[in-house]
Amino acid sequence: MITDGITIPFDVSRIRKEFPTLHRQVNGKDLVYFDNGATSQKPQVVIDAISEYYTDNNANIHRGVHYLSQLATTQYEDARKIIQQYINAPLSEEVLFTKGTTDSINLVASSLGEMFSEGDEIIISAMEHHSNIVPWQMLCERKGCTLKVIPINEAGELMMDKFDQLLSAKTKLVAITHISNTLGTINPVEEIIEKTHALGGYVLIDGAQSIQHIKVDMQALDCDFFAFSAHKVFGPTGVGILYGKKEILDQMPPYQGGGDMIAKVTFEKTTYNELPHKFEAGTPNISGGICLGTAISYLSELDLNAIHAHETELANYAEEKLLQFEGLRIIGTAKNKTSVVSFIVDGIHPFDLGTLLDKQGIAVRTGHHCTQPLMDFYQIPGTVRASFAFYNTKEEIDTFIHAVERSLNMLK
Amino acid sequence: MTLEDKQQEIIDDFAIYDDWMDKYEYIIELGKELPIISDENKTDDKLIEGCQSRVWLNTAVEDGKMSFTADSDAIITKGIIGLLIRVLNGETAKDVATTDLRFIQEIGLHEHLSPTRSNGLASMVKKMKLSAIAAS
Ligand SMILES: Cc1ncc(COP(=O)(O)O)c(C=O)c1O
Fold first, then answer.
1. Chain B nearest CA to A311, separation (Å)
2. ipTM for the complex?
3. Chain A contact for B76, CB < 8 A?
4. Which of A6, A195, B83, B132 could cross-link to B97 by cystine, CB 3.0-4.6 Å?
5. In this structure, are A296 and A308 located in the same domain?
6. Helix (H, G, I), strand (E, B) or coil at B43
7. Has A145 been annotated as catalytic?
């Protein structure tokens, strides 16, 4: 449960104790986990909650009068409320459980997209993850809509004057990432939402990289849709959230058909259940939903401002140390960014550096990070990306820098 | 030297390293030394696109013996290619098609030949074997 206003002072050594994976070894070395952009590690409370669910409470939800089914249903619906409160959504039925960000975006593309027609325009940006590009391309092919792309500058910031030119009364939807997974750029989503609404378009925010770093408030943002994945916010894989405004969700046709999403089924005509069930066909990831609630409760007890300060300090420290290496270039130097440090080194392939870091116990991501158009923009094959979470430390960065130095000496 | 002898020689070479970094040092040196493909063969039809690194493979058959040249944009991938070529070049199509490349497992580098590694090497070995099957 959310403990109103009670936050525990930020203490990284205490927090690290709660994440068992951080204490293992890899290739004979203490693990340094800097791949938080791909997925976060899980605190013991979340791991315990998964085990507890299957040990004590397993039953199907929304379907049984028996005790266990009622218990599981209550826990699942409680989790929805915890998430609703955390993101400050007006209503709990506006919080839909999905499989993750990708599934959430596909839901909107399929369902809201049914209401689009030829000539309608969708705007995305040059820094989108493939999961916020491909569903819209598929929709454009299906419906004859046009996809427009907001360009970025060298620093990896959206060119907002170009956005102003792209935006028009034809714009049905702007789908934009809150924070870039490759560059760390925090986009001016408030401005985008306001301007798009003024012309009657909808806005979907890809929050896969934001909810774990900054406060997200649906009512303050006023976005129409917000998508995120549990596994990047200290919860389990295979579950995520789509927040959508009730008045829009009510107009949208169902996404998938099946159990749970119906009011009444006959062979002649089926009527659909109300929100949120209309969009939740079939038995969902019950333990996943419940444990996302646990993860969000865990996060809500931490001091987000302290986390932000700590993560920013880590990123600044890492960038400062990395820039001492000759020929190293940071990709993504936006003024407003989170704790993602992507870089390349002249003449060194990211795969080689990533492989040698792995052998030294350091987990970073190498490659295009599912943002190939962005790599094309920078004309690079990929980057090495270190992405930090609040449980990372300066000492780990020192270990990392030392390992980078050793690797570069071998590769040069 | 038989194909099997060549595999054993590499296994013996690697036996002296007990540290991962030393093994990689050796592979990187191999990668740096080997100019293994000529530029006119580095064309798109020879390209095997991996998610992490790219590999070019050129195959020729001379007097029933296989001859491979290959390259990669990543130096570790290139070093491993060097090992594979050392073992397979000059061998009969039948031997290339049927041999078990056990040295890779024994020296602990099999992870690089796993398709999930996405570095192009798994597809490269498959292509080498398929061309050998076609030639035998
Ligand atoms: C910005 C962004 N959007 C979408 C996704 C897709 O998330 P998932 O694979 O959990 O659906 C990711 C994950 O890497 C991401 O970073």
1. 28
2. 0.90
3. yes
4. B132
5. no
6. coil
7. no
CA distances in angstroms from A388 to A15, A17, A358, listed in the order given: 14, 17, 16
Neighbours of B114 (CB within 10 A): 11
pLDDT digits (tens, 9 = 90+) for A322-334: 999 999 999 999 9
Query: 3.40.50.720, 3.80.10.10, 3.40.50.300, 3.90.1010.10: which CATH number matches B3-38+47-135?
Result: 3.90.1010.10
Residue A313 has pLDDT above 90, yes or no: yes
- Measure A38 CA to ligand 1 centroid, in angstroms: 8
Is residue A222 included in any domain, yes or no? yes
Structure confidence by residue, pLDDT tens digits, B6-33:
999 999 999 999 888 999 999 999 998 8
Rounded to an integer, what distance in angstroms lies between the CA atom of residue B72 and that of residue B58?
Answer: 12
The two three-digit tokens of residue A383, written as one number: 């980057």
Q: CB neighbours of A375 closer than 8 A, spacing ≥ 6?
A: A368, A381, A382, A383
Answer whether residue A43 is part of any domain.
no
How many angstroms does the Cα of residue A128 sit away from the middle of ligand 1? 10
- Alpha carbon separation from B21 to A83, A358, B14, B126 (Å, rounded): 45, 10, 12, 28
